[in-house]
From TrEMBL:
Gene that produces this protein: bioB
Organism lineage string: Bacteria, Pseudomonadati, Pseudomonadota, Alphaproteobacteria, Rhodobacterales
Family: Belongs to the radical SAM superfamily. Biotin synthase family.
One term of GO molecular function: biotin synthase activity
Protein name: Biotin synthase
Cofactor note: Binds 1 [4Fe-4S] cluster. The cluster is coordinated with 3 cysteines and an exchangeable S-adenosyl-L-methionine.
Length: 325
């Protein structure tokens, strides 16, 4: 077996551009070769995502139907009951999920929410599952409370490059995102952070987004790569679709720059053919969300995922698997 490559956090823009722009087959070969050194190439992690509080978000993310500032005006719900979360997590575990992600549409949690969030974490962990939450921006005391409750991963996507970020979101800055990631990382919680492709950005923005993550003091342990799902009545509703080859190139670059990360093929799979999903997995994606809904967006049904796994000879990654073969 080949020696595992060194993990770098000093990638340059020129290096990343050269990797991204090389002939497509060479790029895939490099990404797959590296992937095989770090992970079982035929194992894919299955996660499940539950919206624990939907709609009425104060942020203005141009892609999101949950923003109170967008035309969709999805009504705000209350934070759902702890026992319902645990019941849904149990169903997900029994269906093969090993990580359970809980997402709330808000700028950040309030003090009154914390005890309920802690109980959710504790209840899901008691089922033997890894826990992940995405709750917006966090203050230091909130990070510590989530850590002490046993949270394994915190998701906080940077969405796009720092240059393009103001075109998508104006109610918080790119630096706000990086600050929250730093608090989470320094507290010892695993970081889950990626972006959304196809929002009208240039290919250089996709490279820069990944470089922002790959040059952090420590790489995120999980990197979700989303394809924009244009939502009706949002500012990005009429955005033309991204070239699928560009999407695969970005997956491959993520694998090469951050070789130990779980690269998650996230939102947008309903619009992807089986062949495109297979190409993404070959390029280094090794995590998916299962279930027919991602927060408010559609996701392939579990039967479709099982059929795809069977066709490709894939199997579910065991709980607690973190790569490095």
């Amino acid at each position: 077996m080949l020696d595992t490559p060194p993990i770098r956090t000093n990638w340059t823009r020129e290096e990343a551009e050269e990797i991204y722009a090389q002939p497509f087959m060479d790029l895939l070969f490099q990404a797959q070769s590296l992937h095989r050194q770090m992970f079982d190439p035929n194992a894919v992690q299955k996660s499940r995502l539950l919206s624990i509080k939907t709609g009425g978000c104060a942020e203005d993310c141009a892609y999101c139907s949950q923003s109170a500032r967008n035309g969709a005006q999805l009504p705000a719900s209350k934070l759902i009951e702890v026992q319902r979360v645990i019941a849904e997590a149990r169903k997900a575990r029994d269906a093969g999920a090993t990580r359970y992600c809980m997402g709330a549409a808000w700028r950040g949690p309030k003090a009154r929410d914390m005890a309920q969030l802690e109980a959710m974490i504790e209840g899901v962990k008691a089922l033997g599952m890894e826990t992940c939450m995405t709750l917006g921006m966090l203050e230091q005391d909130q990070v510590l409370r989530l850590r002490d409750a046993g949270l394994d991963y915190y998701n906080h996507n940077i969405d796009t490059s720092e240059r393009y970020y103001p075109e998508v979101i104006t109610t918080r800055s790119f630096a706000d995102r990086i600050d929250t990631l730093a608090r989470v990382r320094e507290a010892g919680i695993n970081v889950c952070s990626g972006g959304i492709l196809g929002m009208g950005e240039e290919h250089g923005d996709r490279i820069d987004m990944l470089l922002s993550l790959a040059t952090l003091p420590e790489h995120p342990q999980s990197v979700p790569i989303n394809m924009l799902i244009p939502m009706a009545d949002t500012p990005l509703a009429d955005t033309p679709p991204l070239d699928p080859i560009e999407f695969v190139r970005t997956i491959a670059l993520a694998r090469i720059l951050m070789p130990r990360a779980h690269v998650r093929l996230s939102a947008g799979r309903t619009e992807m053919s089986d062949e495109l999903q297979a190409m993404c997995i070959f390029a280094g994606a090794n995590s998916i969300f299962m279930g027919d809904t991602l927060l408010t967006a559609d996701n392939p049904e579990e039967d479709a995922d099982e059929a795809l796994f069977d066709r490709l000879g894939l199997r579910a990654m065991a709980a607690g698997s973190h790569g490095t073969r």
